[in-house]
Design the sequence.
């Protein structure tokens, strides 16, 4: 049996007055994309920095590629690729020169570094741009080059720290495509993100971090089903109908005046049955509707639900 | 591959990177040289007439080695800017995540910069010769003077590398860019310490750049403006020792800061 690409137990790290990591446990399985999801300050980047040997943990044990990050950082470094938050490429060099440089620094011979750079430029659609200065690249191209630079030696695990922060939607999709390609090649990926859709799109397993601890873990669909069932959203044809609709649909109905919507929890019988039930009820009450929509919970809702402060501890008036 | 040969190889890769920077974006070094020429003209022609030399001699031959030493001193904030920029972009962290020797990045930088410094010295010396500066010493003495100036530059580079890695607050670079001036002026670079109030003159004489400037003046056969005291007796020794001391302090500190950063 091979060792897990990454396993962490009870990792703690304190910076002056913040406990960035407060007993983090994590296990990343080979060949998967694992997402660390959390708001700013949850400890995602600190975790990646500890895993990539950039920061020494105060306590806990971390093994990357089977090596202990504190005792054998050099061995860890030769098995990982790190892509940090900002595109860490040299602006004055050409794309190809960047990849060759990082390959050479990884210990590849010049010929191997040149060959590998050509492969990577080809794989990530940068062949044409390869011999131009990086300072003229778009944000998405720069990010793709940056990720390619993390792959020059086919790492056992690739760390992507917020790979799409600051990118426009099109560039985000390009980066996602790239990550899928990397995983298809057999590389394990640990990515941090504050975007739920990103975790939903890419990750096999999601670990939700809050204040340096794991607050939930599971597949995107498991996390979503934990939150509860489907919902039916009915858009009213007339504003006056909203109250009538809510009355007809019973206690679980909530009204959104601005969007002319009534939302009903589907309950145990599932979304399909709930839609039929809603349409039947409204029809027999003689209310016409503009639209009926079945919605499954998004990871956004899971996230807000998990990271929301406990309502019982909220001051008066803050609770809804 | 042995650790030493891979360290040297990594160092060379970083050196080539920096040389490529200068080839692609030559304005930094070119501006540096223009700036030194401007200093030479300002002090040589604007202030020079009003400056009297203790022990006799004219000002230009005194001034030129001082401008050379000042140019070497600018290595501190020059390399600090590069290191700070790399750190800001995350390039330093990427280097730190690679299986590299912790000395390779700063050493590669320093080697590339010494090439750049040698060019700067050459241009300034030719400029000096054009406006009437003369080398009165032998060729070997002049070469030794250039060697001492580069030796000072090397120490300044490691100081700058350390500051770039260790000072993380916003504005640290600007602070150093400003501080270079009083530290540069409080020396024998532009005026003889013997014309200063007693305590300040002593301070200026003990400034590491004063030792290099005075030793270089001696070797070029230019007036030193120094008639007595430690600089008169031991300039050469101090010009060798000061950079050695600075290197002994800042090379290990830089390597430590490289590993600790983050």
Sequence:
């Amino acid at each position: 049996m091979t060792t897990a690409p990454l396993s962490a137990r009870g990792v703690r790290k304190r910076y002056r007055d913040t406990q960035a990591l407060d007993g983090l446990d994590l296990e990343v399985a080979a060949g998967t994309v694992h997402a660390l999801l959390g708001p700013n300050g949850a400890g995602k980047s600190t975790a990646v920095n500890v895993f990539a040997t950039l920061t020494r943990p105060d306590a806990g044990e971390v093994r990357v590629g089977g090596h202990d990050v504190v005792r054998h950082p050099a061995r860890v470094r030769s098995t990982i690729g790190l892509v940090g938050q900002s595109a860490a490429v040299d602006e004055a060099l050409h794309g190809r020169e960047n990849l060759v440089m990082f390959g050479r620094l990884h210990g590849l011979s010049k010929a191997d570094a040149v060959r590998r750079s050509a492969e990577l430029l080809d794989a990530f659609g940068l062949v044409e741009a390869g011999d131009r200065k990086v300072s003229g690249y778009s944000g998405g191209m720069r990010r793709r080059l940056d990720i390619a630079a993390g792959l020059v030696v086919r790492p056992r695990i690739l760390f992507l720290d917020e790979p799409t922060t600051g990118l426009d939607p099109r560039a985000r999709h390009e980066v996602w495509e790239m990550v899928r390609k990397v995983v298809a090649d057999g590389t394990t990926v640990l990515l941090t993100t504050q975007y739920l859709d990103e975790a939903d799109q890419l990750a096999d397993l999601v670990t939700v971090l809050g204040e340096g601890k794991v607050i939930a873990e599971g597949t995107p669909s498991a996390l979503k089903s934990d939150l509860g069932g489907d919902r039916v959203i009915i858009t009213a044809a007339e504003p006056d109908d909203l109250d009538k609709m809510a009355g007809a649909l019973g206690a679980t109905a909530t009204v959104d005046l601005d969007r002319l919507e009534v939302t009903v929890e589907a309950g145990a019988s599932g979304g399909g049955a709930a839609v039929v039930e809603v349409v039947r009820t409204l029809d027999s009450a003689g209310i016409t509707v503009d639209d009926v929509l079945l919605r499954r919970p998004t990871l956004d809702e899971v996230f807000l639900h998990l990271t929301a402060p406990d309502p019982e501890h909220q001051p008066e008036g803050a609770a809804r | 591959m042995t650790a030493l040969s891979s360290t040297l190889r990594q160092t060379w890769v970083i050196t080539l990177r920096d040389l490529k920077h200068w080839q692609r974006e030559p304005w930094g070094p070119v501006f540096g040289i223009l700036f030194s020429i401007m200093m030479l003209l300002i002090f040589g022609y604007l202030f020079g007439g009003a400056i009297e030399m203790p022990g006799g001699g004219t000002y230009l031959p005194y001034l030129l080695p001082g401008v050379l030493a000042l140019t070497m001193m600018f290595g501190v904030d020059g390399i600090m800017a590069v290191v700070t920029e790399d750190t800001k972009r995350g390039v330093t962290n990427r280097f730190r995540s690679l299986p590299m020797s912790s000395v390779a990045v700063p050493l590669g930088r320093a080697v590339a910069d010494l090439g750049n410094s040698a060019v700067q010295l050459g241009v300034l010396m030719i400029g000096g010769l054009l406006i009437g500066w003369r080398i009165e010493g032998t060729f070997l003495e002049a070469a030794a003077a250039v060697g001492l100036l580069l030796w000072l530059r090397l120490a300044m580079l490691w100081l700058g590398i350390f500051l770039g890695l260790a000072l993380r607050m916003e504005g640290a670079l600007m602070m150093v860019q400003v501080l270079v001036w009083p530290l540069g002026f409080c020396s024998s670079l532009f005026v003889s310490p013997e014309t200063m109030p007693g305590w300040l003159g002593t301070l200026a004489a003990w400034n590491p750049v004063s030792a290099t400037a005075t030793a270089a003046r001696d070797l070029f056969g230019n007036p030193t403006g120094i008639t007595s005291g430690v600089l008169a007796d031991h300039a050469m020794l101090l010009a060798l020792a000061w950079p050695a001391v600075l290197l002994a302090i800042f090379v290990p500190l830089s390597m430590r800061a490289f590993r600790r950063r983050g």
